[in-house]
Design a protein that fits this description.
The structure holds two protein chains of two kinds. Chain A is mainly beta. Chain A is built from no helices and eleven strands. In chain A, 38% of the residues are buried. By secondary structure, chain B is mainly β. The chains are: A mainly beta, B mainly beta.
Chain lengths: 112, 109
């Protein structure tokens, strides 16, 4: 079946640094990719929707200058957390859609 | 009230037991996803349903569109099934999923 990968699976960084998370669709082309965030013991919350070659659409309350999303190709989207702070520590999940939506395994970000 | 409700929130079972996790939703949907999230956080997609029933190994998922309800069954449960099971519905006319808060399952040996 279709597979979505994320890299890295976990990352620890210092406060103030930027972190890039990659989401790849491995055997299909994804016209739309989604980024979610999950706090401990809570549901996944949609952060933004990105379409290949165009600007991402951010959900209300999500800072677009802090969470930079690039969907440069039909198989790759990246989420960059800029000037990370400890409150950005979370589990970030992407999903990719080609008519059916497939979820990536997630990336755990810890900001010290 | 959440648009997607799961029950129970927590479940402890003995190895070998038959387990049922329920998901009810209040919006029109075009698909429903069951996801498994292991303690380390990694998410695995178990099923995507738009009607009827699907089976994969010891897992069975059913959906009743008229009643806006889905169930995930695990037969002959095993400690490795311990995880959080999340129901997610794709709201009709959108690309956005609405997620339940998850059911935390612990299977004891």
């Amino acid at each position: 079946g279709a597979v979505v990968s994320q890299h890295p699976s976990w990352v620890i960084c210092k406060s103030g640094t930027s972190v890039k998370i990659e989401c790849r669709s491995l055997d299909f082309q994804a016209t739309t990719m989604f980024w979610y965030r999950q706090f401990p013991k809570q549901s996944l919350m949609l952060m933004a929707t990105s379409n290949e070659g165009s600007k991402a659409t951010y959900e209300q309350g999500v800072e677009k200058d802090k969470f930079l999303i690039n969907h440069a190709s039909l198989t790759l989207s990246t989420l960059t957390v800029t000037s990370a702070h400890p409150e950005d520590s979370s589990f970030y999940i992407c999903s990719a859609r080609d008519g059916t939506q497939y979820f990536g395994p997630g990336t755990r970000l810890t900001v010290l | 009230k959440n648009e997607v409700e799961q029950s129970p929130q927590n479940l402890t079972a003995q190895e070998g037991e038959f387990i049922t996790i329920n998901c009810s939703y209040s919006v029109g949907i075009s698909a429903l996803h069951w996801l498994q999230q292991h303690p380390g956080g990694g998410i695995v997609s178990l099923f995507m349903l738009s009607s009827g029933k699907k089976k994969h190994g010891r897992l069975i998922a059913t959906i009743n569109i008229q009643e806006k309800h889905s169930s995930l069954h695990i037969t002959a449960s095993h400690p490795r099934d311990s995880a959080v099971y999340i129901c997610a519905v794709l709201q009709v006319g959108t690309y956005k999923y609405i997620f339940g808060t998850g059911t935390r399952l612990k299977v004891l040996a």
